[in-house]
Design brief:
About 25% of the residues lie in helices and about 25% in strands. The protein is an alpha+beta fold and about 1000 residues long. It folds into 3 domains: about 210 residues, Aldehyde Oxidoreductase, domain 3 (Alpha-Beta Complex), CATH 3.90.1170; about 425 residues, 2-Layer Sandwich (Aldehyde Oxidoreductase, domain 4); about 240 residues, 2-Layer Sandwich (Aldehyde Oxidoreductase, domain 4). A hairpin with a 2-residue loop joins strand 27 and strand 28. Helix 8 runs parallel beside helix 9, helix 16 crosses helix 17 and helix 19 packs across helix 20. The longest helix is centred in the N-terminal third of the chain and has 30 residues.
C-alpha cells in the first residue's frame, strides 16, 4: 500500500531523556502531508490565484485519509499482524473501583491480555508528567487503581488486548453498554483532583486611557489565589506569605509554567497585596455607583454549557514496541507531533522492563481544532503497545467512546457586573468571576480560565476592571483547549449585558458600543496595548448602516403581520478575539536550483484549515511563484541545529539573557497547530524567508539581468530601486523593466553565486525577536528572526561553499539577539481580530423553537491570503456558534457523556437548514495598506453570532437569556 520508507527518509529531531526522537513521512499515497513533495500546478489559475485548495482533489477523491484509517500492514517496516485494544470505563465516579467482571464475554471472548492499573504500575508505565505543564496535567493515573474512586466519569479502568480483530470487535460490542462489567465498592462521593487554579487581573487606569495606570497586571502583577474548598482565597492585605500555586501561569494557548512558589511570593507578594487593595477600591466604587442615581449598575449570572467538539476523526493511535531494537513506533492523530514525541520520551524513559532508545513518530493528516491538542490519548496508545506481544496495538475510539472520554469545551459559570454613567453612556467598571468546570483531568483548564478573564472586556475600554478566572475540578469528562478557549463564553456574557444596558439607557445598542469601543493605543484589561488599529469603530459603522439594522423595526412589524404566532427579532454583537499563544514560532527552508525549481520544507501541519495552501500563496505573493516542491509537517531542520528548554514562561529575564548567549538557543522550537496561529504567526516565518530571498537574491539577480548589455542595459537610464519590484505576468518586473521569468532569475543567481536557499526560525512573545547576522556578501543585517542559515549558489567562491557544513547550509551565528522581555508574559495578548454579526431570528411562540432567518458578518481579516479559505472558516465558525447558542449541550454528570450512551442520536448539531446557509452574507474590511499582515481568524467568527442570537431573541419576545443554549423549553417558560 505504498513504497518502502528508508531510514534516510526519517528526520531526526534530537534526544529527550536519552531517547532518540525520529519523525517520518507516511508512504507517498495517503494524506496531505503524504503528498508533500513535487506536485503539479493544476490547483492554480492562470493568474496564479488558487482554483481550489492544494489538497482538494485528494480530499474529494478519497486519496486523503487520516491516522484512523491505518493498520500495521499499511506502514513500511511494521509487522503484518495487528493487535487491538479497547477500554472498560467507569460510569460511576462516587464509589471505589474494585475490579472488572468479564463473565459477559464467556470463555471464547476473553481478552488475550487484561491490563489493570496494577499491571502498569508493576511495569513502570505511568501517566506522563512533563514538568513544564504543571502537576497532573495528564492526570494521576492512566487506569483507575483498585480501591480508589475514579477521578471522573468515563475514566478507563481496564484495557482489553486482542490479537484477532473478530473476537475484539464482538467483545467490544458486548461490553459497550454493560456498566455491570465494572465492580464498585464503598460509596465515597466524588473524589476529583484539587482545584486547578485561580488568577485575578485587576486594573485601575490613569486619568485618560493612555495615561499610566495606577495598577495593572502588566505593570505590577497578576494575583494568584489559593482555595478554601472550591472557593478561591485571594491574598490578604496583612499576609506576609501569600499562597502561590505550583503552576502560577500557563502559556496563553498551551504549555505551562512551573515556578518556585517562594520565589514568586518574594518577587510579587507586595504587588499582589497592592492589587487586592485596588480590587477593594473597585468594589467600593461599585457600591457608590449603586447608590448614585447618575449611574447604572447591572449584575448578571450566566452559564455557558459543556459541548463536544465533534471532530470527524475520533481519537486514535497505533503503536508498536520492538523489544529487539528498543524502538517505539507510533502513528496517531494529533495537532502537535513534536509535542507528542517529546512527552512520549519523558513517559517511557528509564523503564527497565520496556527499555526505549528510539521513538519513531509517523505523522499524517488530522482534523482537530483543539480536540487533538495536548490530548492524553496518544499516551494511552503507547501504554497499550507494551502488551501486544510484539504486535502493533491499535486503540481507536468509536463515536460512543469519543463522547465518553474525548475532551470537551469548558462549561463556565459567570458572575459579571458592569457600571456605566447614565448621561454619557461611558462604561466605568467591569467586574467578573469566570469559573471553569475542568472535569477530572487538569489539562489546560487553568489557562482557559485565565483567557476567559482576560477576554471578558470584548471590544470595550473599561477604566477599572477586576476579573478573576477560576478553574475547578469535578467528576465531569475532561475539558481542554479548543474553540474559543474561554473567550467565547466570557465575551458572550459581556455582549448580552451591553445590549441590556443600552435598553436601560434608551440608547441604540450600536451607538453604546461606539462610545465605549477600544481606540488605537488604548490598553486592554491587563495593561498591554494591542497591535495597530483595532478598527472597532469602522466595523460598528458598517453594521449600523446595514439594512438589517436600519430596518429592524419595520421588518419586525411586517414579518409578524405575515406570520401569526411568530416573532421576529434582530440582534447584533461584536467581539475581538486574540490569536497566538504568547510563545509562537515558525520555521522553514526555502530554496531553488539553477533550473528555477522552488522547494519549501515547512513546519506547518494541515488540520483542515487550508494552511498548506495559504503558506504557498504567501511565497507566491513575494517571489512570483508557488513552490514546485512543498513538504509540510517538518518537525526538525538540520539546517537549524537549535536547542531549547521548551518552557519559555518559566524564564526570568536574567535566565533568558544568559541562555541567549548561546547562538543555537531559542525559547521554543516548533509550534502546534492551534491558537489560530498559522496565517499570521507561522506565516510570519514564511514571509521572512521569501523576503530574504527577494532582497538578497531576486533583486541583485534582476539588477544583473536588466543591467546587462551595452551602456548598462535597460536599467542604466532609469531610477529603479528594490521597492519598485513588482510581480507581473511572466515573472518579476516593475519600474518599467521587462519581466524576467523566475527561471532566468534562478539561473543568474546561481551563476553569480548569490544566496539560493534560506532557513529561518522566528519567535514571538507578543513581540517578535530580532537578531543581527553578519552575512557573507550582504554584510551586517538586523532581521526579525532568531536563527538563520543560507545556501550559496553554484557559482559561489569556495570559501563560501566551505561554510555550508550544517545540512548543506551555512548556519550563521547571530552576533546579537533581542528576545522580547519576559515581562510580556503578563501582557495576556496583543494580537486581535475583530468580528461583528447581525442575526435575524424567528421565534415560534407555540413551540418555543428559534429559527435563524439570515445573518450578516463583518470581519477584519487583515490581508486576505485566500478568500475562499476565509469564507470556509467563516461559515464553519458561524455554524459552530449557532449550535452553541441554540442546541448543543452536554449534561456534566450522571446522564452526561461519561456514562457511555451518548452519540449523535442524542447530541444535536446544526444542519444546513439551521444556519441559513443560503441567506448568509459577509463583508471584510479592506486592509489598511498593502503591507497589512493577515490576521488569525478561525475562532473569532463563532463568537459574536452567539450573543447576537440572544439579543435577537430579546428583540423578538422581550426576554433576555444569559444561560446557554437557548432551548425551546426556556423560550416557552419565558413566554408563559
Amino acid at each position: 500500500m505504498g513504497r518502502g520508507l528508508s531510514r534516510r527518509e526519517f528526520i531526526k529531531l534530537g534526544t529527550v531523556g536519552g531517547i532518540t526522537l525520529m519523525f517520518a513521512r507516511l508512504p507517498a499515497a495517503q494524506a496531505v502531508q503524504v503528498h508533500s513533495g513535487a506536485h503539479s500546478k493544476n490547483w492554480l489559475n492562470t493568474d496564479g490565484s488558487p482554483r481550489y485548495r492544494w489538497d482538494a482533489l485528494r480530499k474529494v477523491t478519497g486519496e486523503k485519509v487520516f491516522a484512523y484509517d491505518y493498520r500495521a500492514r499499511d506502514l513500511p517496516g511494521w509487522p503484518e499482524q495487528q493487535a487491538h485494544v479497547f477500554f472498560i470505563k467507569a460510569t460511576q465516579a462516587d464509589r471505589r473501583f474494585e475490579g472488572v467482571d468479564l463473565s459477559l464475554l464467556g470463555s471464547h471472548l476473553q481478552p488475550d491480555r487484561l491490563v489493570l492499573h496494577e499491571d502498569l504500575e508493576r511495569d513502570g508505565i505511568h501517566a506522563p508528567d512533563p514538568p513544564d505543564l504543571g502537576p497532573d496535567f495528564y492526570g494521576r493515573h492512566l487506569l483507575t487503581p483498585k480501591g480508589e474512586t475514579p477521578s471522573m466519569l468515563g475514566h478507563p479502568v481496564a484495557m482489553l488486548v486482542y490479537e484477532d480483530f473478530e473476537r475484539f470487535q464482538v467483545a467490544r460490542r458486548r461490553l459497550q453498554f454493560a456498566p455491570e462489567a465494572v465492580l464498585y465498592g464503598e460509596q465515597t462521593g466524588p473524589v476529583p483532583p484539587p482545584p486547578y487554579g485561580a488568577a485575578r487581573y485587576v486594573r485601575i487606569g490613569g486619568a485618560t486611557p493612555t495615561d499610566p495606570p495606577l495598577y495593572s497586571p502588566m505593570q505590577d502583577a497578576v494575583i494568584w489565589g489559593a482555595f478554601e474548598g472550591d472557593k478561591p482565597a485571594w491574598p490578604k492585605p496583612d499576609d506576609d506569605n501569600p499562597f502561590i500555586p505550583h503552576v502560577v501561569a500557563l502559556k496563553h494557548r498551551g504549555g505551562g509554567v512551573t515556578l518556585d512558589s517562594e520565589q514568586v511570593a518574594r518577587e510579587s507578594g507586595d504587588a499582589m497585596r497592592r492589587g487586592m487593595d485596588a480590587a477593594q477600591a473597585i468594589e467600593q466604587r461599585l457600591e457608590e455607583a449603586r447608590a448614585d442615581p447618575r449611574k447604572f449598575v447591572l449584575r448578571r449570572q450566566g452559564y455557558s454549557q459543556s459541548i463536544d467538539p465533534c471532530a470527524m476523526e475520533p481519537d486514535n493511535g497505533n503503536a508498536w514496541y520492538d523489544p529487539h531494537t528498543r524502538t517505539l513506533c507510533l502513528i496517531t492523530a494529533t495537532q502537535s507531533p513534536y509535542e507528542v514525541a517529546r512527552v512520549a520520551a519523558l513517559m517511557v524513559k528509564d523503564n527497565p522492563r520496556f527499555p526505549v532508545e528510539k521513538i519513531e513518530l509517523l505523522t499524517g493528516s488530522t482534523v482537530g481544532y483543539g480536540s487533538k491538542d495536548h490530548s492524553i490519548f496518544p499516551y494511552y496508545a503507547i501504554a497499550a503497545c507494551f502488551y501486544g506481544a510484539g504486535r502493533p496495538v491499535r486503540l481507536a475510539n468509536t463515536r460512543y467512546d469519543q463522547f465518553q472520554m474525548g475532551m470537551k469545551r469548558h462549561a463556565i459559570d459567570m458572575d459579571v457586573t458592569i457600571a456605566v454613567d447614565r448621561s454619557s453612556g461611558l462604561f466605568d467598571v467591569l467586574k467578573g468571576e469566570y469559573t471553569c468546570n475542568g472535569g477530572g483531568r487538569a489539562n489546560f483548564s487553568f489557562s482557559v480560565a485565565q483567557v476567559a478573564a482576560t477576554a471578558a472586556q470584548s471590544i470595550y475600554y473599561f477604566p477599572q476592571s477586576d476579573l478573576a478566572g477560576v478553574a475547578l475540578s469535578s467528576p465531569a469528562v475532561e475539558a481542554g483547549s479548543m474553540r474559543g478557549y474561554g473567550a467565547l463564553q466570557a465575551m458572550t456574557m459581556t455582549e448580552v449585558m451591553v445590549d441590556e444596558i443600552a435598553a436601560e439607557l434608551g440608547l441604540d445598542a450600536i451607538e453604546l458600543r461606539r462610545r465605549n469601543a477600544q481606540r488605537p493605543g488604548y490598553p486592554n484589561t491587563q495593561g498591554a496595548v494591542p497591535e495597530g488599529d483595532p478598527r472597532n469603530l469602522e466595523m460598528l459603522d458598517r453594521a449600523a448602516a446595514h439594512p438589517l439594522w436600519r430596518n429592524r423595526e419595520t421588518d419586525k412589524a411586517a414579518y409578524e403581520a405575515a406570520h401569526p404566532g411568530h416573532r421576529y427579532g434582530l440582534g447584533f454583537a461584536q467581539a475581538q478575539k486574540d490569536y497566538g499563544s504568547g510563545a509562537d514560532t515558525g520555521a522553514l527552508v526555502l530554496e531553488f536550483d539553477a533550473q528555477g525549481v522552488l522547494a519549501m520544507r515547512h513546519c506547518t501541519q494541515e488540520i483542515g484549515t487550508g494552511a498548506t495552501t495559504a503558506q504557498q500563496i504567501m511565497v507566491q505573493r513575494i517571489l512570483g511563484k508557488v513552490p514546485d516542491v512543498a513538504v509540510f509537517g517538518i518537525t526538525a531542520f538540520e539546517q537549524l541545529p537549535l536547542v531549547s528548554n521548551e518552557i519559555p514562561f518559566t524564564l526570568t529575564q536574567q535566565q533568558q539573557d544568559e541562555l541567549a548567549r548561546d547562538p543555537y538557543w531559542v525559547p521554543s522550537l516548533l509550534p502546534p497547530m492551534s491558537a489560530s496561529n498559522s496565517a499570521y504567526f507561522i506565516g510570519f516565518s514564511t514571509r521572512q524567508a521569501a523576503r530574504f530571498l527577494l532582497e538578497n537574491t531576486i533583486w541583485p539577480a534582476a539588477q544583473a539581468i536588466w543591467g546587462g548589455g551595452p551602456a548598462g542595459g535597460q536599467l542604466a537610464s532609469g531610477d529603479m530601486r528594490m521597492q519598485d519590484l513588482r510581480l507581473v505576468n511572466g515573472g518579476i518586473g516593475g519600474g518599467g523593466m521587462s519581466p524576467i521569468p523566475f527561471e532566468d532569475i534562478a539561473r543568474k543567481a546561481h551563476e553569480l553565486g548569490l544566496i539560493t536557499g534560506v532557513a529561518v526560525h522566528c519567535f514571538s512573545r507578543w513581540q517578535w525577536a530580532s537578531a543581527e547576522f553578519d552575512i557573507p556578501g550582504a554584510g551586517l543585517r538586523t532581521l526579525p528572526v532568531d536563527a538563520l542559515a543560507v545556501r550559496y549558489g553554484d557559482g559561489a567562491p569556495d570559501e563560501y561553499k566551505r561554510l555550508m557544513t550544517t545540512g548543506g547550509y551555512h548556519f550563521i551565528k547571530r552576533t546579537t539577539v533581542r528576545f522580547p522581555s519576559t515581562d510580556r508574559n503578563r501582557a495576556g495578548v496583543t494580537q486581535y481580530t475583530a468580528a461583528a454579526c447581525l442575526v435575524a431570528v424567528d421565534v415560534n411562540t407555540h413551540t418555543g423553537e428559534v429559527r435563524v432567518l439570515k445573518h450578516h458578518s463583518v470581519l477584519d481579516t487583515g490581508m486576505v491570503i485566500v478568500p475562499e479559505l476565509v469564507s470556509g472558516q467563516q461559515q464553519g465558525g458561524l455554524a459552530m456558534g449557532i449550535g452553541h447558542a441554540l442546541m448543543e449541550d452536554l449534561p456534566l454528570y450522571g446522564d452526561g457523556p461519561g456514562n457511555g450512551t451518548w452519540n449523535f442520536n442524542r447530541y444535536t448539531v446544526p444542519r444546513a437548514s439551521d444556519v441559513a446557509v443560503w441567506r448568509q452574507t459577509a463583508e471584510y474590511l479592506p486592509p489598511q495598506s498593502d503591507s497589512s499582515p493577515p490576521k488569525g481568524l478561525a475562532e473569532v467568527v463563532m463568537i459574536p453570532v452567539i450573543p447576537a442570537i440572544s439579543n435577537a431573541v430579546a428583540h423578538a419576545i422581550g426576554a433576555r437569556f444569559h444561560h446557554f443554549p437557548i432551548t425551546p423549553g426556556k423560550i416557552r417558560k419565558a413566554l408563559s
